[in-house]
Design goal:
296 residues, alpha/beta, TIM Barrel, 11 helices, 8 strands, disordered N terminus
């Protein structure tokens, strides 16, 4: 497949669609105020739930931003839904930076948070800070996210002290899946629940601006949300949290082989995509595409 030379003059029917990015360089609505960490704190104070979704590319980020999503998480779940890996562990810092660059270019309103992948922050605080700095300088994102509690609190604090917002992540932390040995609900027993409470308070003390709680009992999610002054975003942590996050591929029905209780599919785009591709193949085979009107 070849592309047209840059000097080619476009005809009227080649003009960009009306929903093309605004001329000021922002792909999202230009009259909407940018969501910041302070916006999220204000939403918690007002009792307004925060809507957060994952994004990994320019096109999906642009659409989700237009939909009014408050936070776009460039998750290391790209390892699963974009690259086809079984776990999130194969993702590298370079991978995350690439995906984040794409998402930032498609975002005009939402706060963009980038996962620090496994191996990019656990070694020491110097490594963690260097990784966070790379993400911020090379992507234009607004914050980073780290999995873990007390063990990473020192690294989180150092990153925050350098002026980089940090979102924490407790409960089922996918980067530790081989330690857990299961995808089952975490913190069901009192000892683990107590540890989660302590970890949550420690992350808040370290300066984290928000916290994700994944796959824990709803009562515990509500309790932590009410205890902390920072916003708590749940995924499988009940409706008592200050907001919710889902993997966009799950929400849209693009990935349907992962069916935890907390996933609600708002569309079945897998069926729509297959149907459209099947119709395209049929039209090509039957020489119904392109038509005379679609030819030059």
């Amino acid at each position: 497949m070849s592309t047209q030379p840059a000097t080619t003059t476009a005809s009227p029917d080649d003009a960009p669609a009306t929903d093309a990015p605004a001329t000021d360089g922002h792909a999202g609505p230009t009259d909407a105020e940018r969501v910041t960490t302070q916006t999220l704190r204000a939403l918690k104070t007002a009792g307004t739930p925060i809507a957060m979704l994952t994004a990994y590319d320019y096109t999906s980020a642009r659409l989700l931003d237009r939909a009014g999503v408050d936070v776009l998480l460039v998750g290391d779940s790209a390892s699963n839904v974009m690259a086809g890996h079984e776990t999130t562990l194969p993702m590298t810092l370079d991978h995350m930076i690439y995906h984040a660059q794409c998402v930032v270019r498609g975002t005009g309103r939402a706060l963009v948070v980038v996962d620090l992948p496994f191996g990019s922050f656990q070694g020491n605080t110097d490594e963690a800070l260097a990784s966070a700095i790379r993400v911020m300088k090379e992507t234009g994102a607004h914050a980073v996210k780290m999995e873990g509690g007390e063990a990473v609190a020192g690294a989180a604090q150092r990153i925050v002290e350098a002026g980089i917002p940090v979102m924490g992540h407790l409960g089922l932390t996918p980067q530790s899946i081989y330690e857990f040995g299961t995808w089952q609900v975490r913190a069901e027993d009192e000892a683990e629940a107590d540890q989660l409470r302590r970890d949550a308070e420690r992350l808040e003390e370290a300066g984290c601006f928000a916290l994700v709680l994944e796959k824990i009992p709803a009562a515990l999610g509500k309790e932590v949300s009410e205890t902390l002054s920072i916003p708590v975003i749940g995924i499988g942590a009940g409706d008592g949290c200050d907001g919710q996050v889902l993997v966009s591929h799950d929400l849209l029905g693009l990935s349907t082989d992962f069916n935890p209780r907390f996933v609600r599919r708002y569309a079945r785009l897998d069926e729509r995509v297959v149907e459209a591709a099947e119709r395209y193949v049929e039209d090509v085979r039957g020489r119904a595409f392109p038509s005379e009107e679609e030819s030059y």
